[in-house]
């Protein structure tokens, strides 16, 4: 579960994207207490290494049982699974600081985890299959040319829509942000809103809108990448969308839950692929999917490709044994990787070869989502810190909800981001 919950509808899949990973909490958290998740003796059965594997609390039925089953199946170490409800980020950060935490854990990489020697590089175990991962899934776990994590699941966020409602209105799936605004207006009636992007009015679209303009949170040489006129134009379009009276606001659940579109409150919804089974059950072949549309002819469509990654703690007493377990579970055991991704929640297996053959991903909106993610997916930059994320979020709030001048708000956020980059890289 998250380090913080800005609102009750925030999904676990969004938590570390919004908080910027675990590293900020690690800088302030006190060392944790006694429950390390390891066997009391500190050793495994039959003289084998004892490993502790930590997960946050998944909402999907069957995930905990699956994790326990995988651990039991592993023959070369005794693996105990700690399923962590509540504030997972703080508990994990405390454990990593104290050395009383896990040997293996799931998270999302932040550069401070590397600089503070919390994680070890995994280049040796991933080398033979690197080409089977999407470039973004490698980049989001790479610092200074070293790979520190193995992606477990991919959670793309896109716009799902009712094909019949668009057809009835004579609307094609939008190709530009202006098209999206026009479509949302056209689809809005006295009973149905055109689009749902969150009860906050669309802060989740801050990344996709930026990418659609050709921008980035950070450039390849680690400079602010959201400061040009095209980025300002894209943020201004989010304000225009907010003012259009076509957005659903005040929904019973937030954008991470499919309730709004399933209940017929909206014709289109920005949401993650995790919700696809519920939407397909409700709509069948009437469900369509599209990336966030490009800003204009010079822009590009965008898909936020989030997910979870497996790491090995640098403070583990059994680093090599932990790496061997990660290789077994998240590289060698492709059957378990597919099981984890598709039989409880609904995600894309990070391995390209698995996604290409998984039966549940071969048709309809599922296949389309996979293709959109491959074509337009954007992943998190590990150099993007929590402080940068806060400044960026404040910028979006002021532009979208308060109508502030985009250029002025960008300048404020740029100042904070530049100071953070100076701190990190000199």
Automatic annotation (TrEMBL):
Keywords: Sugar transport, Transport. It comes from the Bacteria. The keyword Transmembrane does not apply. Pfam families: SBP_bac_1. This is Multiple sugar transport system substrate-binding protein. It comes from Kribbella amoyensis.
